[in-house]
Amino acid sequence: MLNFLARRKAADSRSSTETAGGACALASCAAGSRATVLEMRCGEAEACRLRTLGLCEGASVSVVDSRHCMLLEVRGARLALGAALTAGITVLPAQS
């Protein structure tokens, strides 16, 4: 847990598109990739709704499709998110 909080704090001081250590915006992940959510930079209402749906800091996500919107699989459920929302979510891509 402390390691996760340290990564999150480090991500706060960097840009949301590309950061040191491999973290990037969810919007830049390709279809078929997996990542762990580090931070959600969006409105409080959007963040609350996403957390209710299972997309929260520490959650593992799979990118199913990213053509028109981003289709994610999170904890057995699929969510479709627009580009503006996924640009504000910082993730750490899984090592393959």
SSE order and pairing:
Elements lengths: L1 H11 L11 E2 L8 E7 L3 H9 L7 E6 L4 E5 L2 E5 L1 H5 L1 E5 L3
Describe this structure in words.
This protein is an alpha+beta fold. The protein is built from three helices and six strands, in the order H-E-E-H-E-E-E-H-E. The chain has a six-stranded antiparallel β-sheet with strand order 1-6-2-3-4-5.
Quick synopsis:
This protein is 26% helix and 31% strand. It is an alpha+beta fold. The radius of gyration is 12 Å and the shape is globular.
CATH superfamily: Ferrous iron transport protein A (FeoA)
How much of the sequence lies in strands comes to 25-35%
Number of strands: 6
**Widest sheet: strand ordering:** 1-6-2-3-4-5
Task: Work out the helicity level.
Answer: 25-40%
| Class based on secondary structure composition and strand pairing | alpha+beta
Runs in which pLDDT lies below 50 for 5 or more consecutive residues are: 4-17
